[in-house]
Design a protein that fits this description.
- The protein has 428 residues and is mainly alpha-helical.
- It has 15 helices and no strands.
- α2 packs antiparallel against α3, α2 packs parallel to α4 and α11 packs across α13.
- The longest helix is centred in the N-terminal third of the chain and has 36 residues.
- The radius of gyration is 21 Å and the shape is globular.
Length: 428
C-alpha cells in the first residue's frame, strides 16, 4: 500500500533535502503558529460575543459558523492567486484578510453590532483557509520520501497556536482589554488581529524564494484558471486523487460533526464547563500533536495503509464517544482524542496522495478545490450536528459517523487492491 508514482517530484535518494526547503519549512512553521493562534482566539470568543449582543443562542452559533462560510468561499480564489503569484503572495493576502476580519470583530465588540461579528468571522474564516493552504507550501519542494513528514511538521506547528490561543484570549488578554477600558471580548480579537499580522509579516519578509518559484510554475508558466467543477471532476476521475479527497472529506466531516455535538451531549449530563473545555482541548491535541509521527508513518508505510488506519481510528473514537453516557467523561476524553488522531492521519495521508497524483504545474488549483470540498464537509457537519442530536441522539450521530469512517476504510482497501491488480497486469 504505497504512495505510487510521483509525477514531477524528485526523490531524496538522488537529491538531498536542500537548504531552500529547510528555510521554507522553518518560515512557514513560524508563520502558522501565530496565525493558528489568531484563528483559535477569534473563534473562542465569537459565540459568546454574538450572544452577549443579541441574547440569542441561535444567532450566536450562526455567527460562529460564519467562519466556515469565509473558509469555503476563500479556498478556490486563494489557490488561484497562489498559482498565479506564488505561495508567498497567497499566504500574505489571506492572513491580511484574516486580520481585517478580526479588526472588524473588535469594532463589533466596541459598538455592539451583531452584523460586524458575522462579517468579522467571515474574514477570520479566510485566515483559517490560509492556515490549511500553508501545508502545501512545505510540500512543493519536499523530497519524495519526506513529503508527508514535511506536511506533518507544519500541521504539528498548529498545536501551539490552537491550544494556547483560546486560553490566552479569554484569560489574560480579555482582562487586559477591560483594564484599558475596552469591552473584555474585544481582547480576543485584538490578539487575533495582531497574530494574523505577525504571520503575514513573517511570510512577507522571509518566504524567499517562493516555493512555486523554485518549481518554476508561476508567472508566465502558471496554468490558466479552470472552473472548480472541472477541477473536481478531474480529481474524481483519478483513483488516487479520489481516495485522497475522500480521506480528507470523511475525516473533516466525522471530526467536526462529533466535536461540535460533544458539548451539547455533556451539557445534557450537567457536566462542568471546565471539563467540556478539557475534552475539546485534548481533542485538539490529538489533531495536531502527533502529526510528525503520522507523517513519518505515511512516508514509511504508504498512503493507503495510513488512510485505512485513519478510518479505523475514526471509527474507534466515534464508537467510544457514542457509547459514553452524558454524565461521564472518560469515554469522551479518549474518543475525541482518537477522532483527532484519525483526522490527522486522513489529512496528512490525503494531502500527500493528492500532491503526488498530479504534475507540479496543476497541483495548486487541485489542492484548492480539494480544500473547498473538505471545508464544505466540515461546515455541513457543524451545521447539522445539533439537529441530528435532537432528532437521533448523540449515540446514533457518533455511530453513523463511525460507519462513514468504515466506508473510507473499504474505499482505501479497494483502491489498494485495484492498484495491485493493475501492477500485476503491467508486469505480465
Amino acid at each position: 500500500m504505497g504512495t505510487g508514482h510521483v509525477t514531477g517530484k524528485l526523490s531524496s535518494s538522488t537529491v538531498p533535502e536542500t537548504e531552500i526547503q529547510r528555510r521554507i519549512i522553518a518560515v512557514t512553521m513560524s508563520s502558522v503558529i501565530p496565525a493558528t493562534m489568531a484563528m483559535g482566539s477569534a473563534f473562542a470568543a465569537s459565540a459568546v460575543l454574538a450572544e452577549e449582543i443579541t441574547g440569542s443562542a441561535t444567532l450566536a452559533t450562526l455567527a460562529a459558523g460564519s467562519m466556515s462560510l469565509g473558509s469555503m468561499t476563500a479556498a478556490v480564489p486563494l489557490s488561484r492567486r497562489m498559482a498565479r503569484l506564488g505561495r508567498r503572495s497567497g499566504l500574505v493576502f489571506g492572513w491580511r484578510l484574516g486580520a481585517a476580519g478580526a479588526a472588524t470583530a473588535v469594532m463589533a465588540a466596541i459598538l455592539n453590532v451583531y452584523l460586524l461579528v458575522v462579517l468579522g468571522m467571515i474574514g477570520v474564516g479566510v485566515g483559517q483557509t490560509t492556515n490549511l493552504a500553508a501545508r502545501y507550501a512545505v510540500a512543493d519542494n519536499a523530497a519524495e520520501d519526506r513529503l508527508a513528514r514535511s506536511i506533518g511538521l507544519l500541521v504539528w506547528a498548529s498545536t501551539f497556536g490552537a491550544a494556547a490561543g483560546p486560553a490566552i484570549a479569554l484569560g489574560p488578554v480579555a482582562g487586559l482589554a477591560g483594564f484599558l477600558g475596552l469591552p473584555e471580548l474585544a481582547g480576543p480579537y485584538l490578539l487575533s488581529t495582531a497574530m494574523f499580522v505577525t504571520g503575514s509579516a513573517v511570510t512577507h519578509a522571509w518566504l524567499r524564494p517562493d516555493p512555486l518559484e523554485v518549481l518554476g510554475t508561476i508567472g508566465e508558466q502558471a496554468p490558466k484558471p479552470t472552473s472548480p467543477l472541472v477541477v473536481i471532476r478531474r480529481i474524481a476521475a483519478l483513483p488516487a486523487a479520489r481516495l485522497a479527497l475522500l480521506a480528507m472529506l470523511v475525516g473533516q466531516l466525522v471530526m467536526v460533526g462529533v466535536m461540535t455535538a460533544t458539548p451539547l451531549h455533556m451539557t445534557s449530563g450537567d457536566q462542568d464547563l471546565a471539563v467540556i473545555g478539557q475534552v475539546i482541548s485534548l481533542h485538539i491535541v490529538g489533531m495536531y500533536a502527533f502529526s510528525p509521527i503520522v507523517g513519518w508513518l505515511v512516508d514509511r508505510l504508504g498512503t493507503h495503509i495510513m488512510v485505512t488506519a485513519g478510518g479505523l481510528v475514526l471509527f474507534w473514537g466515534a464508537e467510544i464517544a457514542g457509547h459514553t453516557d452524558p454524565e461521564h467523561s472518560a469515554g469522551l476524553f479518549s474518543g475525541l482524542m482518537l477522532i483527532g488522531i484519525g483526522w490527522s492521519c486522513g489529512l496528512i495521508a490525503g494531502s500527500t496522495l493528492l500532491t503526488n497524483a498530479f504534475p507540479v504545474e496543476s497541483r495548486v488549483e487541485v489542492q484548492g478545490a480539494a480544500d473547498f470540498v473538505m471545508i464544505s464537509g466540515g461546515a455541513l457537519g457543524a451545521m447539522s450536528s445539533g439537529a441530528l442530536v435532537e432528532s437521533l441522539g448523540f449515540q446514533l450521530l457518533s455511530h453513523y459517523s463511525g460507519i462513514a469512517a468504515l466506508l473510507l476504510v473499504a474505499a482505501a482497501a479497494g483502491a489498494w487492491f485495484s492498484a495491485r491488480v493493475n501492477r500485476t497486469r503491467q508486469l505480465a
